[in-house]
Amino acid sequence: MPAATPRESETSRHAWLMLAGAFATFSIGASMMHAYTVFLLAYIQDFHWTRAEASIAYSVSQLVSGISAPLVGLLVDRLGTRRMVLMGGGLLCVGLLGSAAAQALWQVVLLYGVLMTVGANCLGMVAFVPLLSKMFVRRRGMAFAVVQAANGFGRAISAPLAQALVTAITWRAAYLVQATLLAVLVIPMGLIFRRADGRAESGGGSRTTGAEPTRPTRNWTLREAAATPRFWLLFSVYLCTGMGSFFVSLHQIAFAVDRGFDPLYVASVLGFGALMSTPGIILTGTLSDIIGREVSAVVTYGISILGVVCAFFITGPGDHLLLWMHACLFGLTWGARGPMITAKTADLFPGGNLGSILGFITIGSGLGAAIGSWGAGVIFDLSGSYHVAFALSIASYVIGTAAFWSLRRFGR
User: Fold this and answer.
1) What contacts 351, CB < 8 A, 6 or more positions away?
2) 234-267 pLDDT, tens per residue?
3) Residue 65 pLDDT > 80, yes or no?
């Protein structure tokens, strides 16, 4: 095989730099958002809210995340990645500062559920897909998996660190520390992508990244994509996956504390489990390039279901093994479907409107997550248990599996 030319080598290094920057940026935004699982208990203790009330802001956040995704997709197609990162970081910082002074539920809903969520979306997957899909053509599954793994990595570090901060300096001071950290990082995050959008549009690539010379393909519009059954199947997959994941994830710490476990211990265990999602997502996303998106997805759904089943059998603080199995199995595949859905979307609907198309499909994820996170709180308030929520999680995963498998007819 001929050696890569200097230009190809430079392009390859730039592509990998952009991938690393996307991972780091998404990790920062995700860590700020996932810390809410710790603040949930603090709100309940200080404001005496019910589980359903304390879940409203998180549920609204997931709904806003889905609804705002098309706007983020449209803006990234028009403005580019760098501007989106700077804008998102600024919104997150303002939301964290405001949250430190929150006194009422509506304020938490507005600050976390709306302002911070839109900011985090500007630092999330939709913001990076158009850029990376041009740089990693034959290895999209791997590239998107690396970025999606940042969500799990952020989730892994947020729970133990946030719990330690809340325990040491109160939850209000913890928000101020987060805001200060983000303010320091916003400008460097934006500078990483200052040349990204122009380089991605210039074409070319390298064999290292799997990029290909530009060739004629259909340039799908959102209207054309939405007229196809594959678009709505992808939407359904995101919807069911969101419900399956969030009937469990928001209330994991509260559930384990109810069973008698120490909050900091639980946060550490769940943090370790979430950390496993980083290699898990990258492995399954890379495998999807080789064995197909659908087969990889079915495997991850099965592992997630096993993780939820383990939670069913936790009855008290002596069930350490079950808690660890739940954390590791559920955490291993947390977010693993995301890069497969994203890669499948890029496979089926290539072109300059990919950000907008993916944004609308992502509404399904936000809607499912909103239903799951708030629904689990309502179920607990009515029944005093999360078992019905866990059962609904499993059912959602099963339906998601069937929907994803049916995408086989449309090719890889």
Assistant:
1) 217, 218, 219, 220, 221
2) 999 999 999 999 999 888 988 999 999 998 899 8
3) yes
Long-range contacts of 255-259 (CB under 8 A, 24+ apart): 255/311, 255/314, 255/386, 256/314, 256/323, 257/41, 259/314, 259/315, 259/316, 259/317, 259/319
CA distance from start to end of the chain: 27
Domains and CATH numbers, the chain: 6-203+221-410 (1.20.1250.20)
Query: Span 349-372, mean pLDDT?
Result: 84
pTM of the model: 0.70
Stretch 361-379: mean pLDDT = 90
Average confidence score pLDDT of the chain = 84
Determine the residue type at 358.
Answer: L
Select from 328, 310, 336, 325 the least CA-distant residue to 393.
310
CB-based contacts of 6: which residues, under 8 Å, 6+ apart? none
